[in-house]
Amino acid sequence: MAGTEPTPESSSQDSGKSRRSPDGAAKRLTFGTIFMRGLAISLPAILTLVILLWAASLLNDYIIQPTSNAVRYVIATVIDQSRPLDDLVTLDQQAPIPYCEKSYRVTKRTRELYNRFLQGYREMRPETMIEIPEQIRTDWVKDNLESVYVVMGTKAVPYYDYALVASQTPLAEMARSPVSLYMDVVTLRHFNGVFHLSAVAVVVIIIAIYFLGRFVTVQVGRYIIVQFESTVIGGLPFVRNVYGSVKQITDFLFSENQLEVRRVVAFEYPKAGIWSVGFVTGDALSQISHAAGEPCVCILVPTSPMPMTGYTMCVPKSKVIDLNITIEQAFQFIVSCGVLVPSEQRLSPVQLELFAKSGRLTNSDQDVEKGHDYALGKMLVDKNDDPQV
């Protein structure tokens, strides 16, 4: 009936439904929302891994590998046992052997022994006067491999060195010269793989950089470096420009007078009412301070989200406010484009309520305490006005 009043049970059920429906809508998660949450959690780790792998690849390709090749080359020239082809001879009825087939030579003494072997074999078996079976000849050569040399260009290398590399290298990647072959021999025989060789290369790089630093600390060494840069590099038109720019960057990064970030500040830039976050790096030029009529400071304003670049501003001290955050928190704020705000810098509901009432924001303890009292009183009034209570 139209005049029937709703029962308490029905009203409570209706109110329960009305209260549950917004909560249910808020808790309803779509596939896209869940995916974006998972992406937000995994993406930092993935990007960190990609950057580290990229940096390691550059370090390996342009520093470690060239140093490893230099170490291998120096050792290869020392242990090179290749011989000119004029000092070696071929065998009669030369038999094929593994890895090089018939492309090998032997010493003159070995050929004499080989001919005696053939003559003795024919005397024992007169039926083989024309040609001795190939397997017999191959077996004899295998028993005397220490005097066998594989032909590589105008020289020949010992068979055991060649076989060591050939057994672990594809035919298309085999060395074409004795020096290249012995560079591979150094890796396989003396370092037992690329890993140990790379470790030695890293140690060599560290020692070389250390002694270079010791060299330039001496007055004579510094003079030689300066003269080399001014006479040799300074005489190359294009190289001197690139070298000069790179040297300025490296001097800035590795100078003993490191960039000192003194404090985190904010100032109005690029126009009044718009605030930028930056780092005070020192005092400004005196001529700028005289023109401004007051002391100025230099502020580095990094760019988001890659703070490796930025702007250098000279700002009057009166236009700068100090921020009560650490340098790490400031970098997080800049890299995240303002998403990661320090907890103590977030506006609380109390501060927002005060701003709505007074038209200004404050951080003083007295005003915040008043705001808490105001919020608590408002909660009590709302609770007393609730008809269900």
Please explain how this structure is put together.
This protein has 389 residues and is an alpha+beta fold. 56% of the residues lie in helices and 12% in strands. The chain is built from 13 helices and 9 strands. The strands form 2 sheets. It has a 5-stranded antiparallel sheet. The chain has a 4-stranded antiparallel sheet with strand order 1-4-3-2. A hairpin with a 7-residue loop joins strand 7 (296-302) and strand 8. Helix 12 (349-358) packs across helix 13 (365-385). The chain is elongated, with a radius of gyration of 41 Å. Mean pLDDT is 83; it is low at 8-26, 364-372 and 374-384.
Averaging pLDDT over every residue, what do you get? 83
Largest sheet: 5 strands, antiparallel
Q: Please list the strands of the largest sheet in the order they lie side by side.
A: 8-7-6-5-9
Task: Give me the number of helical elements.
Answer: 13
Report the count of strand segments: 9
User: Which overall shape is indicated by the principal axes computed on the Cα atoms?
Assistant: elongated
Proportion in β-strands: 5-15%
Order of helices and strands: HHEEHHEEHHHHHEEHEEEHHH
Helix content: 55-70%
Structural class: alpha+beta
Report how far apart the termini are: 29 Å
